[in-house]
Amino acid sequence: MTQDRKIKIIVAKPGLDGHDRGAKLLARIFAEAGMEVVYTGLRQTPEMIVETALQEDADVVGLSSLSGVHMYFFPRVVELLREKGLDDVLVVGGGIIPKDDIPELKKAGVAEIFGPGTPTAEIVEFIKKNVRTRD
Amino acid sequence: MYDDKELERIRAGKENWEKTTLGKALSKFPERKPIFTSISGMPVERLYTPLDTADLDYEKDLGYPGQYPFTRGVQPTMYRGRFWTMRQYAGFGNARESNARYRYLLEQGQTGLSVAFDLPTQAGYDSDHPLSMGEVGKVGVAIDSLDDMKILFDGIPLDQVTTSMTINAPATVLLAMYLAIAEEQGVPFDKVGGTVQNDILKEIICRGQYIFPPKPSMRLTVDLIDYCFKHVPRWNTISISGYHIREAGSTAAQEMAFTIADGIAYVQACVDRGLAVDSFAPRLSFFFNAFTNVLEEVAKFRAGRRVWARIMKERFGAKDPRSMMMRYHVQTGGVTLTAQQPLNNIVRVALQAYAAALGGCQSLHTNSYDEALCLPTQEAVTVALRTQQIVAEESGATDTIDPLAGSYFVEAMTDKIEAEIEEYIRKIDAMGGTLTAIEQGYIQKEIQDSAYRFQKEIESGERVYVGINKYTMEEPEPTNLLKVDMKVGEIEAEKLKKLRAERDQAQWKAALDRLREVSQSDENVMPAVIEAVKARATIGEICDVWRDVFGEYRPKEFV
Amino acid sequence: MRDYAKEVLEGSPRAAARLISWLEDEDPRALEHMERLHAHTGRAYVVGITGSPGAGKSTLTDKFTFALRKQGLTVGIVAVDPSSPFTGGAVLGDRVRMSRLAVDPGVFIRSMATRGFLGGLAKATGEVVKVLDAFGKDVIVIETVGVGQDEVDIIRLADTTCLVLVPGLGDTIQSMKAGVMEIADVFVINKADRPGADQLYAEVTSRVEQDAHIRERAWTPPVVKTVAVDDEGIDDLVEAIRSHRRFLEESGALEERRRRRAREETLQMIHGELFRRIRDRLTADGELEALVEAIAERRESPYRAVQDVLARWLRE
């Protein structure tokens, strides 16, 4: 009997920001949507996040930042993922992120940015639609 | 407050009203929904009457301002004497820029300073530490050494302002720096006034800026309290904070309950150290949130004051009334602000500030309307300050004391919140106290469950949030957002390099060795920390000594 | 197609991670690679860490791993958490406590959800251990919740099973269901600085001694006190596990355990494969539906049906 393929998602808080209400809430919502959620906790460096994604064979990496460091962390995570050959991993971000920053983040390879107030169902939907098919 | 006959008459009258007038109206116009609840999910009845406050004993439960149990306020004249302290949390970039903003705010009539530190400072890392990458100067000012602190307070005489510092795990270090500057300015320690947050338990519960495990963290907390009691008598040694608990998603009653539970843990730790309760308790202060539901907030503040007074008197045997007063700072609710239609936030903040005033706060920070988008701009900060000035000067809330007392609804709600707080305290006591409840994740789980429930209510549309799930509209891209210069990190790192090369190496090493020795003993660390900062040891170096001696904390996460 | 078996043997974490995913998904593509890895397994020593939720297993795993790393050993960690029976999803939070191991190239951590499999492990946990074994990890730690007698599968995979108990969590000997005490090769009293620790220690020690009197056992489980958050007692734990390992090796019990494991595993694989083949056939031509129909209408009994199906299949 083959198992249903589960979406595996890393939910990570890069940097020193300790506001994890959103990250934890989403971890719970993703699990309710049937995903397997690896929650890393706070104070993650891009290297830690990418190593986790590698070992867990994650389909998605979700990053949350409220302290204004997204322009440094998000592109760096994408860059490191690519270096490790994980170029099919979907990277999404959320938190307090000014709209003017979004085009640059997308150019850097972040698939989507979800600001405060985004319905969680929309985020789940996006992930389900855009997640890689694993060979 | 009414005799039985009177209550009987009212009960009969209410039943009659329900059958006749109300019944008719309901059959024609049904109410908007079957159940009404506060933003915290507390049921709200259609109408409150004396029947709902029948058990209230005025003298025992409410009393008078400045008297036990302080339900009506901690000062005898409240805002008729003077307004609350208007204190805007600010600080960003480097020390020089922040200093300029402080001077601006003081010129605008602000009466106290409030310092926000960047995350590396809060987590005890120097600006050139790998984990500081991208964070330096982001959410507050970057302080590595006494030199930065000197620039921060340049031209600000420390005997004429009071300063509130939002710093927890390394609170001893920042206070040591502040005292070192006072010393240099020739200000004696007993003229220095201000507050450090110094509340490590809520960092572990929900805010995430911890460094060391709970036990050594509590030791540092008590060291600071003990030291200030003896040498810096005007310093508020801890600001026991519910603000972040609420931000993390708790209800109003949970915010108050868990903050009081933390407070009990601190008082117990000081008592265990051998301090007499009335020696330190008068310097304890609190920090709460204010959401938009004005009446619930007012009830929360009143209930909190009453519960705390009773705990201090009955559980800890305090004799000094000042030990029983819950004095607190309020900040309006950061998470209530929306990125959508940000100008609406001005209205939210106004209602929240109004709630804080009606609730009897001692100081207040009003948020800027653009905070869900970015760090606040100067314009938004000014509007925020003006908002509380309008509440103070124009609203009339400041003319009489505790104006909502006696409202059947507010009194009933106050009782209900009080009961909920007491129930939580009982549960936490039964578990073995606050530290155990935190270790087992009980408190964290309760908060997360409330956050989850709230999110579900918003998404189902059951609870309306203007601009989020109702009255939404297409908006132009926001403009005029403040961004921090990414260069701050490099500049700070450069400064550190210079500092490390130029300081007196022998003095620096001796000070850190001494600090290590004291930390491994039972001695109070404060004098050694002051010596270390004067020897130009950086915050990262001092915390590294402690990381080595105390170990580092990794929390259990409860999702 | 990439040669994952070869890449795993060459030390590619990416290949190991993907192969593990296939095993979790029961993707038949994994078989061929596992077959080739088999010759390279059996080298790693497998340690199980189990106990109630909140016993501090992740922290203990973190500190234990750190201690092994200081001795130059490489470590694989398989952290198992339950899937929700309602949604099928899971929150896997064990990594939080192991942040500092995340970028250590000598450590490979994999979180697994049980995916409805009972017994405290995921169905594929045993296979995942083999991948990490072939991948070259010296020690493999399996961390999982185990509170009842239904969650003791870990002893089938682990060479040494550590049962973590904590004072004040209701972890008293009286509350232990039959069978749980017996699984431990090493007892760990974690959070030993808490009130009640000495009492729990005394209880466990006396129980262990009683057992030794009642039944002849070649190994008497040591009871180790730790305060994992403060890094206390970890060396004692390492030593206790090492002496159990020495005992297993010298007494020949390790060989015996592994043989027993191979036997169970082989039988289980036969069971699984036979079941799969029969089910595939029965469902392919609609025979199963017809049988179910007949059984539901009481025209046929399931007992008879089983015999018929098996007889027919075995003849073919």
TrEMBL record, chain A:
Q: Which domain of life is it from?
A: Bacteria
What cofactor does this one take?
adenosylcob(III)alamin
What is this protein's name?
Methylmalonyl-CoA mutase, C-terminal domain
Q: Which species expresses this protein natively?
A: Desulfacinum infernum DSM 9756
| PROSITE patterns the UniProt entry points to | B12_BINDING
Report whether Metal-binding shows up as a keyword of the record.
yes
Q: Which SUPFAM superfamilies does the record cross-reference, listed alphabetically?
A: Cobalamin (vitamin B12)-binding domain
Entry keyword set: Cobalamin, Cobalt, Isomerase, Metal-binding
Record keywords: ATP-binding included? no
Question: A Gene Ontology MF term for this entry?
Answer: cobalamin binding
Domain named B12-binding: which ranges? 6-134
Q: By its UniProt entry, which PANTHER family does this protein fall under?
A: METHYLMALONYL-COA MUTASE, LARGE SUBUNIT (PTHR48101:SF1), METHYLMALONYL-COA MUTASE, MITOCHONDRIAL-RELATED (PTHR48101)
Automatic annotation (TrEMBL), chain B:
NCBIfam families for this protein:
acid_CoA_mut_N
| Methylmalonyl-CoA mutase alpha/beta chain catalytic domain ranges (all copies) | 39-552
GO terms of molecular function? cobalamin binding; methylmalonyl-CoA mutase activity
**Name of protein:** Methylmalonyl-CoA mutase
Task: Name the keywords, alphabetized.
Answer: Isomerase
| Annotated organism of origin | Desulfacinum infernum DSM 9756
| Isomerase among keywords | yes
From TrEMBL, chain C:
Kindly list any coiled-coil regions of this protein. none
UniProt family annotation: Belongs to the SIMIBI class G3E GTPase family. ArgK/MeaB subfamily.
Asked if the keyword Hydrolase belongs to this entry, the reply reads: yes
- State the species of origin: Desulfacinum infernum DSM 9756
Indicate what this protein is called per its UniProt record.
LAO/AO transport system kinase
Recall the taxonomic lineage recorded for the source organism. Bacteria, Pseudomonadati, Thermodesulfobacteriota, Syntrophobacteria, Syntrophobacterales
UniProt cross-references to SUPFAM superfamilies, sorted A to Z: P-loop containing nucleoside triphosphate hydrolases
Q: Which UniProt keywords apply?
A: Chaperone, GTP-binding, Hydrolase, Kinase, Nucleotide-binding, Transferase
| Molecular function terms from GO | GTP binding; GTPase activity; kinase activity
